[in-house]
Amino acid sequence: MMSSRFLSRPLRLVSLLLIMGPTAVGAQGTVEDYERADSFNARTRGLVVDVAEAPNWIGETSRFWYRKSVEGGDRFVLVNPLVLQKQPAFDHGRIAASLSAARGDTLTAVTLPFSSFEFAEDGHAIEFTLADSTWECSLVDYACSNSGPVPERPGRGGGVGYQAGPGQLWRSQGEEGLQSPDEEWEAFIQNYNVAVRKVGEDDYTLLSQDGSEGNAYAHRSMKWSPDSKRLAVYRVIPGHQREIHYVESSPEDQLQPKHSTLIYAKPGDVLDKEQPVVFDVEGKEQVKVDDSLFPDAYSLSSLEWREDSQRLTFEYNQRGHQLYRIIEIDASTGDTRAVISEEPETFFYYSPARGNGGTRYRYDLDDGEEILWMSERDGWAHLYLYDGATGAVKNQITKGEWVVRAVEWVDEEHRQIWFRASGMYQGKDPYFLHYYRIDFDGTGLMAFTEADGQHSVTFSPDREFYVDRWSRVDRPPVAELRRTRDREVVMDLEDGDDSALRATGWRYPEVFTAKGRD
Questions:
Q1: Would you say the C-alpha torsion 351, 220, 165, 212 has a positive or negative sign?
Q2: Distance separating alpha carbons of residues 123 and 60, to the nearest angstrom
Q3: How far apart (Å, rounded) are the C-alpha atoms in residues 273 and 218?
Q4: Fewer CB within 10 Å, N side or C side of the chain?
Q5: pTM score, whole prediction
Q6: CA distance 25 to 22
């Protein structure tokens, strides 16, 4: 459904029609059509009740709370799965009265001015944020007080921020030192070169002397080895800084158009060229890295050290996206090898697999001895187990005419993968997300969800329980508490009530099936 933000803009386009009267007809409909569409959200907001939001687990326990919609507003519910207890998270009326007195508001039990909170004082109080302040309300006498300003989040520090596109990732430089894991050294960029010094000292040593404005070492890319004996960094030859220009024709905060720019390379532009370099800090030696496996980069990922401090890896996305590699560097010699090399005939979908697109997923086991990897090499997005030492596929983990959407969790102890997938249920919408578990060897596939709908599952910290929230375009949301070991429903949390919405004459969209282009 189109949001009111987008629907509001056509009103400006048809405003001249008002001169001719309220029933003037444009190519896209009458003014009343636009006004009716623009007011839809306001007219229907809050008419579906008993809809549960995502659960919030309390610490490392199986207890959780969630917010649900009720007539006129919202309420908070507290659940203890161990005793199958569901109750109000607190006395909403007393909280409303206390906050109203403290703030001068007029609040009710269903119009509390916060959407999230945390238990404090061993569960005898709650804390939440209002505007720029932290508030605390006792659950004993229900007195509420302002605890002061919200603490500022620590900044990243150092460097100038750039809004940059592909091939422009290392343009910002930082001035702050990067401290080594043993806290003895700090590394920084001095006049485009890499320098190190003892923590607390002013004197420094240049590890490189070949840096320049047109061939600079990038502060953001520096990584210490776990044993603090080596330092890895990208040296960058800048590409073309092309500026893309945008004009926002109808900004919401002014009548005139707005102009903005973005640094973004176009096809054919020269991109930044990143070359990894490894330094032996104590020996003050530079190790040249063989670049034959990554000659034409669209982008290189950050450098990541293995725990043994002898190897480091990065990912290479070749321009054109028809070659994607995990490359390992021998820190002593600079030799490189392709641990995994994806070479599809079409292109590699390099966006991270998060459930709504993208298929890149990687998980290293035992310091890279094994690697879990997602690939579309058989035509479907599936998981593979690789031998990290040889680069050979040990086995395909998931298989079939369905797709893995994202990995939720890797249980290394039991060698199991918990993941999301679509299309496994024949005859049902192939786009619905469902949740599963499978063993590394491809056996033991188990489904956590089966209802015909789009699922969102949240597991307890100990994974003993999970909340399954699901819905369809023609069915209001449902929330169920299930036990993980047998997937049984132990408590029906909420079942959305849409009767007030349907009483307005609103009807659900009609679900249909059509053939694709293929």
A1: negative
A2: 14
A3: 12
A4: C
A5: 0.85
A6: 9
